[in-house]
Every structure is written in structure tokens, then in C-alpha cells.
Amino acid sequence: MQLSVGIVGMIAVANFQYAWTLFVEPLQNKHGWSRVAILDALAIYFTLAQTWLVPLEGHLADRFGPRRLLIAGGAMAAAAWIINARTGSLAVLNAAQVLAGIGSGIVYSISMGSALKWFPDRRGLAAGLTAAAFGAGSAATVLPIEWTIQESGYPTAFVWFGVGQGAVIILVGLVLRFPRSGEVPIVVPKVLQSGRDYRPGEMLRKTSFWLIYAIMAVGAVPGLLMIGQLKPMARDFGVADIPMSLLGVFTIAAVDVALMIDRIMGGLTRPVFGWLSDHIGREVAIFIAFALEGVSLALLLQFAHNPLMFVLMSGMAFFGWGAVFSLFPAVSGDMFGRKFATTNYAWLYTAKGAAALLVALCNRLQAETGDWTAVFVLMIAADWLAALLALCVLRPLRKRELGEPGASANGENFGR
Predict the structure, then answer these.
(1) What is the pLDDT of residues 357-377, one digit of tens each?
(2) Which CATH number fits the domain that encloses residue 365?
(3) Which domain holds residue 258?
């Protein structure tokens, strides 16, 4: 039940990040703001607030419990979209995005921390299912939001969906809780896990943490860029409005098909790679995910003017990228223990904020050159760098630190 409640919370908060691309052009047309400025509201103000404050939010949740924080997070996220609907000031829009980021970060960190705490024996799968809700949670609302924007205007879409999502988060806050002493079974893990619980300060002094941080930051760049840029990107490649048949029944613009497929693939990959990593190891799974994304982006650049290839390859790219958010929580729990899992992963999650700064630079590069080639080359290089670091550097380092599955770093058996 607790896993399900966390999943519902993630679904409710997904649109605050994933639906932003639907509002870029309406905001630009209404206010005359530049595309880069509107994208910065997501890539910088929202993402930094969502990620860099989660260590504090995770600490407060570990210490005082998740209920009050979740209720406050739902209220802040809803208020942010109401402000977005009514403002004509870019500065106010950015401030509202900070508020939305704080609310979203609270829900994300607590839901993920809950999964890591409740399921130490299936950490990859539990984290994957929870993260899947954040990745795919917006798929069902892509068309409703798009239609609301077209029929009633983007302010109405902001208000209706902001209030609805905030209300669901508040209801989740009334139910979700962390496990009490004795509620979590003692298990012998199948993958390398630490025999002790590291406090955040201890974790931050370990080289392995900063290596994991760097891999996550580099590997998160391509997907974060495409979340905000997919619709403008499709328009630049000339495929946005080309009609495509969906399920042989509906005819929908290619960009809307891509948005739905990307959200579904970005969500589906998280439990798939989480489960896979529980069996083949985290680093091998990370390598496969990033390598898949790199190949998909290369093919997307090559065939971007073909609407079918644009939809398929962007979907495969999101299938590789989305695995980040199940694999890295699992790695964090394995390396640094269960007791402080919420706070420890919250520190690692700030890598997404570091990636957002790189995304902002890529947005500016595209705006300056008017071309996507250089940006795609950088994204592909980021994927392969992250893949090789995981397999060739992180894997041997973890083996040295943790020993064999079922044994602690000093060789003593643990788990039973």
C-alpha cells in the first residue's frame, strides 16, 4: 500500500516537469518572451529548486516524518501553477517555478525514500516503479492539457491541472509513512550492498559518492534537454504537425504522439531497468541504458525529418534516459545503507540540478547557432562518457569497497 501511495504522489507531480514543453509556445506568443527565457524557467529555476533543496527536505522527512512536508508540497505546487496562469511578468513566472520545484522535490524525495526504506531486497524494482510514475505519469494528460490550452487557453490549463494535482498530493500526504522498527524484513541481497548505514556527512566524504554524482549529472543532460525542447525541436525539424495514426483510430500530430510515447517509454524503463539491475548489477544496467540512449540520439539526428523515426528514436532515447531515476536511487541505497536513504539519495539527486545548468548552456548554444547538430553531438558524448565511467570505473571501485554480495566491505556476512 505504501508503495502504491508513493506512486500516486509521483503521478500527481509529474506534469510540473514533463508538461512544461506544452506551455512554451503559448507563453511565447502571449508575452513575447524568448524561447530560451521560458525554457530557463524549467531548466534552471524549477530544476534547481526541485533538486538542490531536497537534502534539507529529506533530512526533515527522516527526522519528523513525511506527512506535513507532503501536504505543504502539494499546496506549493498547486499555488505555483495558479500564479503561472495569472502573471505577465517573467520574474514572477520564474519565482513560481521555484515554488513548483520545491513542492515537486518534496514529493519526489519522500516517495523515493519510502520505496528505498520499505524494500531493501528489491530496491531496484521498488525505486523503478516509483520513478516510473514520475516519468509516465504525464502521458495520460498530454492530450487533455493540449486540448485545454487550445480550447480555453493556457491559463485555464495551469489552474485546472495545478489545483487537481495539488489536491492529490495532499491526499497522499495523509496516508504515506516510513516503516517503523521491525516492519522491514531482514534479507540477504543479491547485489553488492553496504553492511552499514552511512550518515550523510560520512557519505559526502567518500570518493565513490562523487563518482556516482558525476555519472548521474553527465547522463541526465540529454533527457532533461529534450523534456523542455521536444515540441520546439519537432517544429524545427518540420515534423511537429504531420498527422500520424494512433492505434489505427485517431489521427494526431506527430509531436503529440512523440510526447505520449516518450512519457510512456520514460516511465516503463524505470521498473524494467530497476528489476534488471537487481539481477545483473547496477553498473552493467547503467552502461546498457546510456549506450542505448546514445545510439538512439545518433539515429534521431540522422533521420529527424522523418516523423516516424522522430517518434520512435525519441521514445528509445527516453527509454535509455529514464533508467537514471531507478538505477541511481538503488546504487545510493546499496552503497550507503537504508537508515538514511531518503537524505542520502536527496544529496545524490542534486546531480540533476547540476545537469540542468549544462542543459541551460545547450539551450543557449542551439539558440546562437540555430542548429541542433552541435547539441546532439554533446548529448551523445555525455551518454557514452557516463556509460563508460559506470562500467570501467564505478564497477571495480564498488567491488573493492563492498566485497561480494551478502558480505560487507570487511568481508563479514550481513543481512541475516
Answers:
(1) 888 888 888 888 888 999 999
(2) 1.20.1250.20
(3) 2-178+190-402
Residue 410 in domain: no
Alpha carbon distance 194, 398 (integer Å): 10
Phi, psi of 251 (to 5 degrees): -110, 120
Question: What is d(CA 116, CA 126) in angstroms, rounded to the nearest whole number?
Answer: 7
Describe the crossing of helices 307-321 and 254-280 by its angle, rounded to 10 degrees: 30
**Amino acid symbol at 316:** M
Evaluate whether residue 407 is within a structural domain.
Answer: no
- What is the number of domains present in the chain? 1
- Residues 262 and 265: their CA atoms lie apart, in Å, by 5
In a domain, 411, yes or no: no
Query: Mean pLDDT in the chain?
Result: 86
- If you count them, how many residues does the chain have? 416
> CA-CA distance, 37 to 30, in Å (whole number)?
14
With a cut of 80, say whether residue 102 has pLDDT above it: yes
In a domain, 212, yes or no: yes
Compute CA 28 distance to the chain's CA centroid, rounded to the nearest angstrom.
25
Contacts 24+ apart (CB under 8 A), 156-162: 156/85, 157/22, 157/23, 158/23, 158/81, 158/82, 158/84, 158/85, 159/81, 159/82, 159/85, 161/15, 161/19, 161/81, 162/77, 162/78, 162/79, 162/80, 162/81, 162/82, 162/84, 162/85
